[in-house]
Amino acid sequence: MTRAMTTRLSNPRPPDAAEGCTIELDEVPNLLGLYARAVVTGPWHHGDQLPATDVALRDQAIDVEHLAAYQRVCAFRIRDELPPTYLHVLAFPLAVSIMVDQAFPFPLTGLVHLANVIEQRRPIRVDEVVSLRVHAADLRPHDAGRTVDLLATATVGDETVWRSRSTYLRRGKQSKPRPPHHPTTPPDGPAALIRVPGDIGRRYAAVSGDRNPIHLHPLTARAFGFPRAIAHGMWVKARTLAAVEARLPEAFSVDVAFKTPVLLPSTVSLVAARDDQNWALDVRNAKSGKPHLTGSITPL
What is the pTM of this model? Predict the structure, then answer.
């Protein structure tokens, strides 16, 4: 299996980024308020520069009830270690606060989540106090427009325990040649069928705070061009990891690409094929074979 990541996530911030600033938050930003701000500021986003600003939230205790609710929605076991995707939920409001700022080049509405990498350096216990920091990096051309990364880091004391990179696409004028299309085939291995219920968008929104209308109801999804509501990409990633949770190493990176939306309700086929210490992940529609997620797990 090809390793999707052979080194730990690096910070691509240029040397002169020290001239930027860090915004220290006193509490988790309210996502509904940020979404309202996105509607107002949307027309004013433009440019070719990213804000040289970090957003930080220090010394956050884990809410045990919220963690258990997240574990249930994503089918993780109820236990006192955080699922690898859980800190993404805590860091996501910080990322949105950067994306709704007028210094960010793209409006939040219409951004497409293309890929996500999570690096868990060690298991994180529910009784640990976590500090989070997020910034934007690596604005670059894409064959369907432009992409940007939102990088998040979690520390316990002075120790970095978790990192992530979420890549978002702003569709627009083609800025580089489109590569030839090569259909993907699932890796060899047994497939597990997972039924994705019609209300999973609303249930995941309740624990993640991400109430994008494309996930909530068929009517609101149709307003954005989808025939039905679609599952959150990070729920699909979390549900995939939950299926192999008992076999994950203590330190690993998991790198996934989101291919096509999972329409709700539906049934998906999951293949998690192990090759030595590495895993290949593949999620696709059980009937049509259309790919929804591909990725890999690599021990650190």
Answer: 0.90
